[in-house]
Specification:
Mean pLDDT: 77
Radius of gyration: 19 Å
Largest sheet: 2 strands, antiparallel
Order of helices and strands: HHHHEHEHHHHHEHEH
Number of strands: 4
Shape: globular
Number of domains: 1
CATH topology: A middle domain of Talin 1
Number of helices: 12
Strand content: under 5%
Structural class: mainly alpha
Strand order of the largest sheet: 1-4
CATH architecture: Up-down Bundle
CATH superfamily: NCX, central ion-binding region
CATH class: Mainly Alpha
Length: 311
């Protein structure tokens, strides 16, 4: 029974990959008609769209009574983005230039938004007030980045959303969302199954395995950005997607009937992420880029994180 379970697990992630690509490519047509700025679009629109797998896993995990999978997936997603996917983008894309991406204060605010859930969940629960704090932090970040970068250029925001979409585009988006949500149900079920077999907590498996699978859309954006030589789009999506995890956690916490309670402690995880963000900030601001060599350094940090969390 193990082999069929593994095949279903891998196939579910493959479905998420294709479903997310369908969503992102269809929405991309909208931006070409609205002439949206590349960074503004990738941060806000792509950032939220590529968290649809996390949303679907979160809803399934909460309704199944397994919130640890949900929390582990969201926090693990931030780690995967900054210490695996961005380093890979730097390594294979011969570095990422960040000089025109975000001002220092906004990058620091983005880090604060991303690390807030890890800090506030160290008491092993998330209440409604903390959910409201997560929402407030995200919208504060939205305000400052919108003020700096803007979502729309040259006043094209007056174009009506529905007129920019065809029925075929809308059908593709809805079909893609359906694929992602259907696959997420199997992912949550198989995560609990494999956690029992290999004797690890569902939280650890979600922190490492599910977070990698649900960030396949971000990996896809990165690969296409490297090929198209538009790495600013990928970086904007990564920052936006990691921040949107906090938005999603706040949203589902506020909508929930009670506190989200987890078993695992987060102190060690908080220290890892805090030091990792400090290293990322230092490397990115030294020459306003992440070089190929620095990408390898961040990748080593991800490997160390997996080893430390396992023990």
């Amino acid at each position: 029974m193990i082999l069929p379970g593994i095949l279903i697990y891998l196939f579910s992630f493959l479905v998420i990959w294709f479903g997310s690509r369908l969503i992102v490519s269809s929405v991309g047509k909208l931006t070409r008609k609205l002439k949206v700025s590349s960074f503004g679009f990738s941060f806000f629109v792509l950032g939220i769209l590529t968290t649809i797998p996390e949303l679907s896993v979160g809803l399934t995990a909460i309704t199944s009574g397994d919130p640890e999978i949900f929390v582990g997936n969201l926090i693990g997603g931030v780690i995967v983005i900054f210490f695996l996917i961005i380093p890979l983008l730097a390594i294979f894309g011969n570095g990422i230039k960040l000089s025109s991406q975000l001002k220092t204060k906004n990058l620091l605010l983005a880090f604060a938004v991303m690390i807030a859930p890890v800090f506030l969940v160290m008491d092993k629960k998330i209440n409604h007030l903390e959910g409201v704090i997560f929402l407030g932090l995200y919208f504060l970040l939205f305000y400052f980045i919108q003020k700096e970068k803007g979502i729309l250029d040259n006043g094209h925001g007056k174009v009506l959303f529905l007129k920019s979409f065809s029925l075929a585009d809308l059908a593709k988006i809805l079909f893609g969302i359906g694929m992602v949500f259907a696959a997420s149900r199997f992912i949550v079920e198989k995560t609990l199954y494999f956690a029992q077999i290999i004797k690890v907590s569902p939280f650890y498996l979600s922190l490492v395995a599910i977070s990698l699978g649900t960030n396949l859309p971000e990996l896809s954006v990165g690969i296409r950005s490297i090929m198209a030589k538009k790495k600013q789009v990928a970086f904007g999506d990564y920052i936006g997607s990691a921040a949107a995890n906090t938005l999603l956690l706040g949203f589902l916490t506020v909508l929930g009937k009670g506190d989200i309670v987890v078993v695992n402690g987060f102190t060690k995880l908080f220290i890892i992420i805090f030091l990792g963000f400090g290293l990322f900030f230092y490397l990115s601001r030294s020459n306003n880029d992440i070089s190929r060599k620095e990408g390898f350094i961040l990748l080593l940090l991800y490997i160390a994180f997996i080893v430390i969390e396992r023990h």
